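Entry 14. Ran structure prediction on the chain below.
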Amino acid sequence: MRVAGFGCRPGAPIEALRDALARTGMQELSALATIPVRETELTALARALDLPLHLSEVAGITTPTRSERIQAMHGTGSIAEAAALSACGPGARIIVTRVTSTCGRATAAIAERKETP
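Output, structure tokens:
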């Protein structure tokens, strides 16, 4: 299972989200994820990609990268990484740390969990 997690500014356009996702280099995904207050921004992308959108609480999730501003506001170092990890579930790991869209309005990260037979 591979999940793309996203963080973004309020009102970030779908083009910024697509750009951030493209910068991860991942094409095969199982789902998208973000925090509940960013559902509006991510819904159009999830529909366009025909993928489910998971809304995740991210406080307390340890991430490979860390923004002091995001840590203070949301209790985690990266919304994109934490949302991806949360949506993947136990045993998930980040395989692409957060990347930022060219315009700076969106971030994306990829988490993966190996399926057990």
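The chain has a mean pLDDT of 95. Will compare against last week's run tomorrow.
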